[in-house]
């Protein structure tokens, strides 16, 4: 009983003290809040533990992305800024990813880097992390909630509209095209398709024969395109909205003995090599793998108390007939089924984070 | 088998538990490991969070086990979870409100399940084919209801179901009690009997077709409720969130000793199987395994869970 009341009194004293302190510190914290990034409370000290909550580690794009993350972590370890990297793989299951992020919160990591397995499902667990002062950096597949330190991505709408615009220019605004999409119900694939629509609406001469929805893999895309080639003797262009899809399309044309047509796509090495080999007119952009490294860098910057914008829009690097050779020259540094991404360094990161 | 001491009930239950000792030990070991790695799970909030992550898997595993005990199987568990989630996320913040949303989700689950059951029972088509076809239809409908992740579940409902309190665990206990009650009814008993030996059951007066339809309907109900919970847990709907659950529900049931041919296995085994799958993820995280090692460890644990009881029973027989 006595112990209890002493405890109460000490709490009361502590409260009074904090209230005074808070009143004193008010103008200061106001300034701090303006400078510090979202979710950051300034209680966490270097070296930091970073959690990397991957949705699925098997695809080559993911492996390459994880490569840039571990490279960045190694560099920051040498500077004494990072202590440890914890990696999870939800094996494509958003429900598992929620569980793993919860475990990261339980383990009290300092930062969580996440590619969301679902744009809506992670909202609650991610905001919980944010409430605990954990720096949450979300890249590639984004969550809906804004309770994260930063969302880093390229613009999927722009991806679609730029690709469609190139196709319009290439065909002179007239012709029959096939659109190849990623899986239905996935934000990235929906957004790219949506971005293409206004351009298609404005150019009625471009007739969309049909569309496909497949996983972002070569084999299903090739299969889908093969059956479309049987059905459609006249195809003037392939508006593919994902790298591996384009390679599948070109392979299908090749196997059927049909002459390839102008094709859009991503920086998949296989596509770029086919593009050069078949001598097609091509256009490609990319989701740079170094978004992973940038996210780690941003997390540490935020934890250090430096400002990190709530949204970082990374400009889409473009590969066209003029610049493709510079990419293919570096091809041997990348896996055969991988993505040849543009170069990056700390200066680029600093520039992206200040914009 | 030893001569029955005590009641017949105990003896029967002991026989039914026999193959599962290994699994129970494995689950207990995992839970002990989890608690020692992360003592916070013993706090109310920690316990709530953990059981919330287990709950949907527990429900779909029960839904799958219920069908497998009856000699069926469902390949549309995943899409049906998604459908439950998107219906919840699109109706609950609308004019129907939370109660209306719950009713609509439940009716959908019962209805879809009953349709599958009717086709399987009356047209004598294999459940695996009917539910495979059904999975495309249900998955498509889920995408029509909500083409991309979105929708909303009221925050108070999310907090009530998946907040700081172990509501999910209490709901699970309720479902288990419901199962026990169902097992005490003629239809419940018929479910096992028809799964074990349909002809024999029919000759003993079990209305085999009706039991099958009821099994599918109840399984559908449990599945959409898992979807409803996922919607509450995530505060929103996602038309493809259930996809991995088809395989996980089968894995949980099989780990729990439920056979593919019907009549073999127990619901408690299936629940233990699902708990094993859920706890494994957390334990491996806290052990700090890299993802590649996690794949390997997962496989080893699953093989152990299936092989150990088998080896033990073989030794007992010898």
Short description:
The complex is a heterodimer of chains A (355) and B (318). Chain A is of the alpha/beta class.
Detailed description of the structure:
The complex is a heterodimer of chains A (about 350) and B (about 325). Chain A has 12 helices and 12 strands. Chain A is α/β, with parallel strands linked by helices and about 350 residues long. Chain A folds into 2 domains: about 130 residues, Response regulator (Rossmann fold); about 130 residues, Rossmann fold, CATH 3.40.50. Chain A has a 6-stranded parallel beta sheet with strand order 2-1-3-4-5-11, sandwiched between helices. A 3-stranded parallel beta sheet of chain A has the order 7-6-8, sandwiched between helices. A 3-stranded mixed beta sheet of chain A has the order 9-10-12, with helices on both faces. In chain A, α3 packs parallel to α4, α5 packs parallel to α6 and α8 packs parallel to α9. Chain B has a single domain, classed as Orthogonal Bundle (ABC transporter involved in vitamin B12 uptake, BtuC). The model of chain B has no long low-confidence stretch (mean pLDDT about 90). Chains A and B meet through β2 and α3 of A and α3, α11, α13 and α14 of B. Chain B: Part of the ABC transporter complex LsrABCD involved in autoinducer 2 (AI-2) import. Probably responsible for the translocation of the substrate across the membrane. Chain B: It is a multi-pass membrane protein. Chain B: It comes from Mesorhizobium liriopis.
Helix content of chain B: over 70%
CATH superfamily of the largest domain in chain A: Response regulator
Instruction: Specify the number of helices of chain A.
Output: 12
Major sheet summary line of chain A: 6 strands, parallel
Classify the beta-strand content of chain A into a percent band: 15-25%
- Number of DSSP strand runs of chain B: 0
Helix/strand structural class of chain A:
alpha/beta
Largest interface: A-B, 34 and 42 residues
Cα distance spanning the termini of chain B: 12 Å
Shape of chain A: elongated
Number of domains of chain A: 2
Which CATH top level class of the largest domain in chain A fits? Alpha Beta
Instruction: Please give the order of strands in the largest beta sheet of chain A.
Output: 2-1-3-4-5-11
Mean pLDDT of chain B: 90
Give the helix proportion of chain A (percent range). Answer: 40-55%
CATH level 3 topology of chain B: ABC transporter involved in vitamin B12 uptake, BtuC
**What is the averaged pLDDT score of chain A?**
87
What structural class do you assign from the helix and strand content of chain B? mainly alpha
Q: Got a strand count of chain A?
A: 12
């Amino acid at each position: 009983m006595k112990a209890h009341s002493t405890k109460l009194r000490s709490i009361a004293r502590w409260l009074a003290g904090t209230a005074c302190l808070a009143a004193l510190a008010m103008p200061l914290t106001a300034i701090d809040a303006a400078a510090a990034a979202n979710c950051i409370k300034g209680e966490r000290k270097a070296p930091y533990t970073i959690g990397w909550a991957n949705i699925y580690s098997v695809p080559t794009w993911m492996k390459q992305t994880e490569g840039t993350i571990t490279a960045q972590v190694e560099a920051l370890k040498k500077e004494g800024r990072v202590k440890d990297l914890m990696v999870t793989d939800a094996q494509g299951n958003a429900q598992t990813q929620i569980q793993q992020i919860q475990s990261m919160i339980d383990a009290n990591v300092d930062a969580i880097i996440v590619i969301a397995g679902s744009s809506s499902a992670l909202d609650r667990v991610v905001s919980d992390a944010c409430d605990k002062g954990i720096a949450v950096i979300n890249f590639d597949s984004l969550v809906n909630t804004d309770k994260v330190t930063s969302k880093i991505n390229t613009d999927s709408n722009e991806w679609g509209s730029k690709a469609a615009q190139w196709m319009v220019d290439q065909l002179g605004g007239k012709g029959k095209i096939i659109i190849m999409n990623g899986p239905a119900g996935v934000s990235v694939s929906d957004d790219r398709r949506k971005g293409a629509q206004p351009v298609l609406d404005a150019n009625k001469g471009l007739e969309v024969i049909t569309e496909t929805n497949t996983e972002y893999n070569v084999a299903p895309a090739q299969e889908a395109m093969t059956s479309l080639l049987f059905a459609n003797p006249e195809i003037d262009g392939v508006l593919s909205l994902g790298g591996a899809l384009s390679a599948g399309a070109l392979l299908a044309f090749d196997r059927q003995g049909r002459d390839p047509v102008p094709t859009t796509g991503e920086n998949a090495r296989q596509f770029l090599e086919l593009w050069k080999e078949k001598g097609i007119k091509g256009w490609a952009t990319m989701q740079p793998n170094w978004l992973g490294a940038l996210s780690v860098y941003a997390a540490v910057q935020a934890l250090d108390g430096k400002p990190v914008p709530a949204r970082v829009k990374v400009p889409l690097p473009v590969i066209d007939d003029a610049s493709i050779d510079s990419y293919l020259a570096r091809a041997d540094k990348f896996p055969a089924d991988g993505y040849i991404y543009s170069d990056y360094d700390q200066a680029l990161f600093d520039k992206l984070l200040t914009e | 088998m030893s001569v029955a001491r005590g009641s017949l009930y105990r003896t029967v239950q002991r026989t039914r538990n026999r193959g599962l000792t290994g699994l129970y030990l494995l689950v207990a070991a995992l839970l002990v490991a989890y608690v020692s790695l992360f003592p916070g799970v013993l706090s109310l909030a920690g316990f709530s969070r953990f059981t919330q992550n287990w709950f949907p898997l527990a429900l779909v595993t029960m839904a799958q086990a219920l069908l497998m005990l009856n000699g069926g199987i469902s390949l549309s568990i995943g899409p049906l979870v998604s459908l439950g989630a998107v219906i919840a996320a699109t109706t609950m913040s609308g004019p129907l409100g939370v109660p209306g949303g719950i009713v609509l989700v439940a009716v959908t689950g019962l209805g879809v399940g009953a349709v599958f059951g009717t086709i399987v029972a009356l047209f004598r088509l294999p459940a695996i084919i009917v539910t495979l076809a059904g999975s495309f239809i249900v998955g498509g409908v889920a995408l029509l209801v909500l083409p991309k992740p979105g929708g909303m579940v009221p925050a108070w409902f999310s907090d009530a179901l998946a907040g700081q309190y172990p509501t999910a665990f209490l709901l699970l206990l309720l479902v288990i009690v419901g199962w026990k009650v169902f097992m005490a009814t003629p239809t419940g008993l018929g479910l096992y009997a028809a799964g074990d030996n349909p002809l024999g059951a029919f000759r003993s007066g079990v209305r085999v077709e009706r039991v099958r339809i009821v099994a599918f309907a109840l399984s559908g109900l449990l599945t959409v409720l898992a979807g409803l919970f996922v919607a509450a847990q995530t505060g929103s709907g996602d038309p493809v969130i259930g996809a991995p659950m088809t395989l996980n529900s089968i894995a949980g049931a099989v780990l729990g000793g439920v056979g593919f041919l019907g009549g073999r296995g127990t619901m408690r085994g299936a629940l233990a199987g699902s708990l094993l799958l859920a706890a494994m993820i957390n334990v491996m995280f806290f052990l700090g395994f890299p993802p590649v090692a996690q794949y390997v460890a997962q496989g080893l644990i699953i093989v152990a869970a299936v092989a150990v009881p088998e080896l033990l029973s073989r030794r007992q027989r010898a």
